[in-house]
Amino acid sequence: MDNVGIVVESLDTAIAFFGELGLELEGRAVMEGDWSGRVTGLHGQRVEIAMMRTPDGHGRIELSRYLTPPAAADHRTAPVNALGYLRVMFAVDDLDDTLTRLTEHGAQLVEEVVQCEDVYRLCYIRGPEGILIGLAEQIG
């Protein structure tokens, strides 16, 4: 896998949030032109993107803010059993510390932190704009 794409309203807010998770901003750019619309099917699109790399260097998240055309739908607050992409899961070293830091960036715990046997502590959070993120701390 090269990257996961997430469409957001505020690129700066999303960059700060994922930066707190340890992702590093690789770069920002505006994508437009004939080639761009031929890939996505949105001819005439103009999109500001930010590419963020995971700490291990093996994965990336592409954050996109559509300047034109405007967003056509909003799936950010769909329940976890809605069809389509569910969430991105991040491995963290200290779940409690990560939750504290992400709360300062607007994250809200979906329900509660749970322990899966003696292996993981897990939770789902809603980040900026309601983006669903999973967090997992290996304990065993």
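The above is record 1. Record 2 follows with the same two-line structure.
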Amino acid sequence: MTAVLLAILLFSTFAITTYFGFLGKFPSMNPGAEQFGTIEVIGKELYTTYSFPFELVSFILLAAIVGAIVLAKKKFE
């Protein structure tokens, strides 16, 4: 019985703190927020603005994969 009361007290304290902690902090949403983080926007940024770093990272990852395969296939004597 005590555990149930403590759980209810803990949950209600958490709920009240969360409610009053965020009350009035975010009055309105930015109009551009609906497009932020969509697959289309991320793809456009990757292949236009960040095309060179994207290709560089893909080349480094490919080299790491090939190196891991070579090391794994090496026979130990």
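The chain has a mean pLDDT of 86.
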